[in-house]
Amino acid sequence: MKIDIPKIAPELSARNFSDIFYEEDPILEMCNITDSDFENEAIDRVHLYSAVIKNCKFTNSDFSNIDITDVRFENCDFSNVNMSNSSIHRVQFINCKLLGTTFPESSLGNVKFENSILNLATFGNSKLEKVIFSDASLKNTDFYDCKLKNVELQKCDLDGANFDQTSLKGIDISSSAFDTITVSIESLKGCKVSSYQAIQFATLMGLIIKE
């Protein structure tokens, strides 16, 4: 599946998150932000457009209602960041840490999480369309009641992930791994799995498989 990559301006100005802390309508656009720490802060309705953000720490910050478009994050730490009710489109998270990050009631489109840690992250009641998780750790990640369309899970760790009330129709998880996973039989209809995973699901459903 091809997804749209971020459309980032060729020339970017150097900025910092502290530049917008006191702004009524906080906007950062056409900028390059590197080695910036913005931890334990709270800014509502931040707008990030056409930016490259590297080696930044945002742990325990509140970015509710954030709007992110055409942005590439590299080696950033979003652990325990609140991004509820967010709009995230044409965005890449590369080698990022999103441990316990919350995305409930959000919309994600043309987004790629690559070599990133999303353990204990929550996406409850969100819409994900054209989203790729590649070599990502999704241990105990919560996808409760999500709408998934054109979502790929490539070589991910799904152990303990929760897909309750979320249809996996058309979703290919065959290259990913898990010991346990929460999903209903109804939600599994149309999901693409490996032969080993089919045995795992049968075992989780209480079936006794005889050789």
Automatic annotation (TrEMBL):
It comes from the Bacteria. This is Pentapeptide repeat-containing protein. It comes from Heyndrickxia camelliae.
